[in-house]
Each structure stands twice: as structure tokens, then as C-alpha cells.
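Exam revision sheet. Question 4 asks you to relate a sequence to its structure. Input first:
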Amino acid sequence: MRCLIKRLSLLCVLGLFAQAGCGKKLNDVRIVQVEPGEEKLIIADPVSRDQSVTVTWNADGSPIIIYLFLERDQKAASEAITLGNNSGLLGSKAKADRGILEVQVPSGEKLIVMLTSSKQASVRVHISGK
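Answer key, C-alpha cells:
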């Protein structure tokens, strides 16, 4: 009986260590082709815990406009972009050929990166979690 209790205790402790670990961190690198006037969306995997997420980009060909928002806030973000304000957005940057934005993403949420440009652009985007 004592042996069983010790094993169960050990399993509980190991389970707690596994949950307290780093968890899955975002690390998504891709090259996206953006056509003039097009809205290109990148949907990042949901994070397993609250994370600070950094989005870096480098556009060849033309400056871009980049917007960051949560998937659950997509409707509000779309309205904010149309109206030209920042409500519903985690971050944005206009007319930048390169840059870095850092935002907080809550556990279980998907980050959406939206890219648009007035000219054709090839954009290297790197989404990473800390």
C-alpha cells in the first residue's frame, strides 16, 4: 500500500513539473506574397499559456501595413481598421518595410497577423513566443 501511495505521489509531482514547463512556444517563419490591395492573413497556432509574442517582418518591394489582433476579436479589428482607429487591435504599423511588434497573447488564443500593401511585396514574417 505504501509503495502504491509513493508511486501515485511521484506521478503527481511529475505531472506538475510537466505542466509547469515551458509549454509550446510559437516559432513560425514564412514568406508571404502580398498583392496590391490584398489582405493576407497569417493565423498563428494557439498558445498553451500566456505569452509575449514578437512579430518581425522584412518586406522586399514595398512598405506594408501590418495589424495584429486575436482571432476572437477579428470582427472588432476589421471595423477598427476600416474606421482607422486602434480599438480591437493588439498592435499595428503603417508603411514600414521592416519592423518589430511585441504583444501579449492569452492562453488558448490565436494571434492573427494581417498584411496589406499598395504595391506587390514579398514579406518574410517571423512569429515567436517567449
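Marking note for examiners. Strands lie at 27-34, 39-43, 51-60, 64-70, 91-96, 98-105, 111-116, 121-129.
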